[in-house]
């Protein structure tokens, strides 16, 4: 993106007293991006003719779904009311609201001194509101409570202001009321940011230390690294060193985002901006690393971020095996853009070479797959998502299983599965329906609190494997869309789990294997056999489809034989008619993956490797 000079007057870059770093956190769909839009307009850095909704959401998938996936930092000048001669610099970060992107939020909080906790005045406090609030408290940030959407007919600002004040421990009058859509109250909010958020603290004369909190890959300029300067000062054309990797570079460009890239001479204490070194190797810019000078640099690195642990694993395979190197390069570049993404190579008898990819949740999986297909032009098959199991054998050995094909055979002593602590918030009339759903998913109630007369918070421990598919869909349908869900890992528990194999013509298809609870093994096996019977086209021989636990078959379906002659209707005429039919048949054959002697079409893999609702449906972004 070309640099554009900013025409906005700014104070001295070395004066941290005029800098305020803050972010906006909230549950999904509570108006973070709309509030960011109004701030961009009010501070004058985006002209009305250039303005569009969700201005900071740059990806197509973000704009289509109306959700934020990537945090975006922007620098805005603001002169508080009564102090027009001393404009402040506000560095604002708009964060995602979905539970799958909590890692983005935690990184953003580490680059700030304060945050706006935004709550929809029509919906009130939701599960992710609480999760983000606790994150902000862990980082010891100044929290400014804000009620948004007060212009809605269904808004109940007084009721939810009392709820929010009770939660944070402040007075009801301290809760600010704004409408991001109309702009009402936003000026007062910016004044409060200047008043309440503390200035950044750092040593201006010390060797420079800057924290990398994000990075992106630009095809023309290489890696663009986003930093917050904690100590000292960084300037253009200086030699810098990455403290964890030891890589050294020359600073080709340094600047700020206002909201487009704006070149600067340097960045001082407390400032947030970007730097470009022209490096194309994505592994040399690690999120959480510390940047310092090559000569006379800092000796002690800044504390980085906790590495996120993937909770859901899925295999990603290119439809065309020759695209494997392109998929590897694409994952490399996406990992730079998304530090929570982990992957390792694997191969499958049915699907060939691919990668076992770790995700933070189903929406994360869906977004990564959509980005790989759109941004890199890849056609992919994703295997059914599953979690990590720890299997103890009777001989004392232990196996970590991320893929059902790795499940050991032999005498198993115990199988341990990951467990999460789920927080569910809903109107009190739906308590019975939620309890029934959680009990059917092997959940255990840990506690229940009434946030107000008609809103209740339930805390459950649930096996992660039971909620990664269609739990959220089932929750929404039973509560008419009013419930919200947040979860975090809490450890593991032993359970009676078995591996169900699917056999076609007696040959095991590893892509269709699954690890399920013993009580649900028969229903999974019969459902998968039924589904494959409908999806696999009839062959010229009978195809038995069997579901088995070890050597015991628990379900069976059969695809009846057929013999199809595409030229039967061509009793005469031009040869080109026959050639056209043969070519059409040939195109159909290309779309088939051959498993043993049975031809399984690509659609069968895609449809069978999802639940009835499918991962794409089961993770709609209304969390």
TrEMBL record:
GTP binds at residues 29-34, 148-151. It catalyses: GTP + H2O = GDP + phosphate + H(+). Its EC number is 3.6.5.n1. Keywords: Cell membrane, Elongation factor, GTP-binding, Hydrolase, Membrane, Nucleotide-binding, Protein biosynthesis. It is found in: Cell membrane. It comes from the Bacteria. HAMAP family: LepA. Belongs to the TRAFAC class translation factor GTPase superfamily. Classic translation factor GTPase family. LepA subfamily. Required for accurate and efficient protein synthesis under certain stress conditions. May act as a fidelity factor of the translation reaction, by catalyzing a one-codon backward translocation of tRNAs on improperly translocated ribosomes. Back-translocation proceeds from a post-translocation (POST) complex to a pre-translocation (PRE) complex, thus giving elongation factor G a second chance to translocate the tRNAs correctly. Binds to ribosomes in a GTP-dependent manner. This is Elongation factor 4. It comes from Streptomyces daqingensis.
């Amino acid at each position: 993106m070309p640099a554009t000079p900013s025409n906005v007057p700014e104070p001295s870059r070395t004066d941290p007293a005029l800098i305020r770093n803050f972010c906006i956190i909230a549950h999904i769909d509570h108006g973070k991006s709309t509030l960011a839009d109004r701030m961009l307009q009010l501070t004058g850095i985006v002209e009305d003719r250039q303005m569009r909704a969700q201005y900071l959401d740059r990806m197509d998938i973000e704009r289509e779904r109306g959700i934020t996936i990537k945090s975006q930092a922007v620098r805005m000048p603001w002169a508080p009311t009564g102090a027009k001669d001393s404009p402040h610099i506000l560095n604002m970060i708009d964060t995602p609201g979905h539970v799958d992107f909590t890692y983005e939020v935690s990184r953003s909080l580490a680059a700030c001194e304060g945050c706006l906790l935004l709550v929809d005045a029509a919906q009130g406090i939701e599960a992710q509101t609480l999760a983000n609030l606790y994150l902000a408290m862990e980082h010891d940030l100044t929290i400014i409570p804000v009620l948004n959407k007060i212009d809605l007919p269904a808004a109940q600002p007084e009721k939810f202001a009392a709820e929010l004040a009770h939660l944070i421990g402040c007075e009801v009058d301290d809760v600010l009321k704004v409408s991001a859509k109309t702009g009402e109250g936003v000026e007062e909010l910016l004044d409060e940011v200047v008043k309440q958020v503390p200035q950044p603290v750092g040593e201006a004369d010390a060797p420079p230390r800057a924290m990398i909190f994000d990075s992106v890959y630009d095809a023309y300029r290489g890696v663009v690294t986003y930093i917050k300067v904690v100590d000292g000062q960084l300037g253009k054309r200086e030699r810098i060193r990455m403290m964890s990797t030891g890589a050294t570079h020359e600073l080709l460009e340094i600047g700020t985002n206002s909201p487009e890239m704006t070149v600067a001479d340097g960045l001082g204490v407390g400032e947030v901006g970007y730097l470009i070194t022209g490096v194309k190797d994505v592994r040399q810019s690690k999120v959480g690393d510390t940047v310092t000078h090559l000569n006379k640099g800092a000796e002690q690195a800044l504390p980085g971020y906790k590495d996120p642990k993937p909770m859901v694993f899925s295999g990603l395979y290119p439809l065309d095996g020759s695209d494997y190197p392109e998929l590897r390069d694409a994952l490399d570049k996406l990992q730079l853009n998304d530090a929570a993404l982990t992957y390792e190579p694997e191969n499958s008898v049915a699907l060939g070479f691919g990668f076992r990819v770790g995700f933070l949740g189903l929406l994360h999986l869906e977004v990564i797959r959509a980005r790989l297909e759109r941004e890199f032009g890849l056609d992919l098959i994703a295997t059914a998502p599953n979690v990590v199991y720890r299997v103890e054998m009777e001989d004392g050995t232990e196996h970590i299983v991320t893929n059902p094909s790795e499940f050991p055979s032999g005498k198993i002593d115990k199988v341990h599965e990951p467990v999460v602590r789920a927080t569910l918030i809903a109107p009190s009339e739906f308590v019975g329906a939620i309890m029934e759903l959680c009990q059917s998913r092997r959940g255990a109630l840990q506690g229940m609190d009434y946030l107000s007369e008609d809103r209740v918070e339930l805390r459950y421990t649930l096996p992660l494997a039971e909620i990664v598919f269609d739990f959220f869909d089932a929750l929404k349908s039973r509560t008419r869309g009013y419930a919200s869900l947040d979860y975090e890992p809490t450890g593991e528990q032993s359970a009676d789990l078995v591996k169900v194999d699917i056999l076609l013509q007696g040959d095991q298809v590893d892509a269709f294997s699954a690890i399920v609870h013993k009580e649900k093994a028969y229903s999974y096996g019969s459902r998968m056999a039924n589904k494959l019977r409908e999806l696999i086209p009839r062959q010229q021989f009978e195809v038995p489809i069997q579901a088995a636990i070890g050597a015991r078959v628990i379900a069976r379906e059969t695809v009846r034989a057929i013999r199809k002659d595409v030229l039967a209707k061509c009793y005469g005429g031009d040869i080109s008619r026959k050639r056209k039919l043969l070519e059409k048949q040939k195109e159909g054959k290309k779309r088939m993956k051959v498993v043993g002697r049975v031809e399984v079409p690509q659609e069968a893999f895609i449809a069978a490797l999802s639940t009835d609702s499918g991962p794409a449906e089961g993770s709609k972004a209304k969390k």
